Amino acid sequence: MTADEPAFDEAAWRERVREHRAEKDEFFAEHPQSPIPVGDREDFDGLAYFEPDPDFRVVARFGRAQSTEQVSLETTQGPPAEYQRVGVLGFTLDGEHRTLEAYRVEGEDSLFVPFADETNGAETYHRGRYLDVDAADAEQGDDVVVDFNLAYNPFCAYADQFACALPPAENRLDAEVRAGERAYEG
Fold first, then answer.
1. DSSP conformational letter for 116
2. Are 51 and 17 contacting, i.e. CB atoms less than 8 angstroms apart?
3. Which one Pfam family would you cite for this protein (predicted)?
């Protein structure tokens, strides 16, 4: 966020979250590239989400990685996935300072942030979730919004045929992130 950015409009934000979820549910129900198995799509009536909670929309300080090295993240199956580590997002959640590493995916404008938290295996996908953070042009010390209400499950949460990157140890939060997508009950 910058000084010239308008104040947070919670009603407009809630509407954007609702619209985002409706578009995603439509894609999952109808698109040929949906990760929902074809046989399950007829009964698919949308993903399960936590209620939008502005407490899980945080402002993070972006710290550029000293070396934008290639890293290999373990995957659910097959060889590791290669990403470019570009920075660290530092923020406060539940009254404590926390950090998440951010990666660049070639061809993407947003930053990829895989994370795990204390809800995994109980309320959310047991291997973690993903965030896309609009910070591709962020510079050292910039404030960026990290909205956990937009956290989503990787495609492997819906079908075993997908290979998905797993969150690294550095991105395991010792907090319950009760925001975004819940576990799929297909």
1. B
2. no
3. DUF1684
State the burial class of residue 52 (Cβ atoms within 10 Å of its Cβ: 0-12, 13-18, 19+).
Answer: buried
What is the pLDDT averaged over residues 58-86? 92
| Cβ proximity of 98 and 114 under 8 Å | no
Is the alpha carbon torsion for 183, 123, 17, 88 positive or negative?
negative
Q: Which distant-in-sequence residues (6+ apart) come within 8 Å of 27 by Cβ?
A: 34
Looking at residue 162, its pLDDT comes to: 94
Q: Give pTM, 2 decimals.
A: 0.92
Say how far apart CA 133 and CA 167 lie, in whole Å: 15
112, 80 contact by CB (below 8 A): no
pLDDT(4) > 70: no
Domain ranges of the chain: 10-171
181 DSSP β-pair partners:
49
